[in-house]
UniProtKB/TrEMBL annotation:
<dbReference type="InterPro" id="IPR004027">
    <property type="entry name" value="SEC_C_motif"/>
</dbReference>
<dbReference type="InterPro" id="IPR045970">
    <property type="entry name" value="DUF5926"/>
</dbReference>
<dbReference type="Pfam" id="PF19348">
    <property type="entry name" value="DUF5926"/>
</dbReference>
<dbReference type="Pfam" id="PF02810">
    <property type="entry name" value="SEC-C"/>
</dbReference>
<feature type="domain" description="DUF5926">
    <location>
        <begin position="43"/>
        <end position="305"/>
    </location>
</feature>
<protein>
    <recommendedName>
        <fullName>DUF5926 domain-containing protein</fullName>
    </recommendedName>
</protein>
Length: 305
């Protein structure tokens, strides 16, 4: 069962389903296009744990975090990385809402997409998946729907068992889909010594992917200062592989020595975090060696998928 409370999408020359008598492309189709064109560089800025929102959307296979509604309603809402079929949300029989970050489609403002999905889910029937229609321009952003004063507490999982409703008996098809999804998961762990750094095991190598809250220019300067001084590593045998951009933030990636566990990288990560904070805050102009290091970093874009 799918719950869609907005005007459904039809062909551009067909009558708009809202009953206005206009063609869809000049009625609700126009509004949907306007909403999709609105681009927000840092869509999760202003939310608690901005960097973890980005990590759950881009880095981590399986993780959850409880959310609190701004309305004060105590209804259970759980943010998750992925749902079966890449659905945007589902509502369990007991009314609990699961809201997914990794979906098939997204506009220029994922926070607005999530706000629209969550408000749709709040009106959906228990036991349904949620497929919101086109997002209207006036749809609330996530920042308007959830309590932005509540801390985001992320739990990383070894599998997607949170897909199963503990109060219902999952069928064989659901369990089969779960096993298939679990077989493709990238083992990950959130480091506890720093914010939003994730250890990931890729089979043939281990990495740390760290979503940092700094603006891009000062962060590149800071990394360049550390690189020129030989202080941008997470210990002997590790190296800064490069960076990638995600939701307006720069994410450095370090290759680790084979077999390095998440626990083993906690202390080096904490020390690097302190060095980096000082390097980013430094105001002195870059030296020639640091400028060359910066140029190298800017050109080393990492692809993680």
């Amino acid at each position: 069962m799918s719950a869609t409370t907005e005007v459904p999408v039809v062909g551009p020359r067909q009558p708009c389903p809202c009953g206005s008598g206009k063609r869809y492309k000049v009625c609700h189709g126009k509004k949907a296009r306007e909403a999709e064109r609105h681009y927000v560089a840092r869509p999760f800025e202003g939310l608690p744990g901005e960097c973890d929102w980005v990590a759950m959307r881009e880095i981590v296979s399986s993780a959850t975090a409880p959310l609190r509604l701004a309305s004060g309603d105590d209804r259970s809402v759980v943010l998750c990385t992925l749902l079966p079929g890449a659905f945007p949300a589902l509502v369990r029989e007991n009314g609990e809402i699961l809201l997914a970050l990794q979906t098939m489609t997204s506009t220029g403002d994922p926070a607005a997409d999530l706000g629209h999905t969550l408000t749709t889910a709040l009106e959906a029937e228990p036991g349904s998946t949620v497929s919101p229609g086109p997002r209207p321009p006036e749809a609330p952003r996530l920042h308007d729907v959830i309590d932005v004063d509540a801390e985001l507490q992320v739990t990383v999982h070894d599998g997607f068992d949170y897909w199963l409703d503990p109060e219902s008996d999952a069928g064989s098809d659901a369990r089969s889909a779960l096993e298939e999804a679990n077989s493709a998961i990238v083992p990950s762990a959130r480091l506890s010594s720093v914010e939003a750094a994730y250890w990931c095991s890729l089979g043939d190598r281990d990495q740390v992917r760290w979503v940092l809250p700094y603006d891009e220019e000062p962060l590149l300067d800071g990394l360049a200062r550390l690189h020129a001084a030989g202080q941008d590593t997470l210990g002997e045998g590790t190296r800064l592989l490069g960076t990638f951009r995600a939701s307006g933030l720069l994410v450095p990636v370090w290759d680790l020595v084979d077999g390095t566990t998440a626990d083993a990288v906690e202390e080096p990560a904490a020390a690097l975090g302190e060095r980096l904070a000082e390097a980013v805050a430094a105001k002195t102009p870059l030296t020639g060696e640091q400028r060359r290091a910066r140029a190298g970093l800017a050109n080393r874009q990492v692809t993680i998928r």
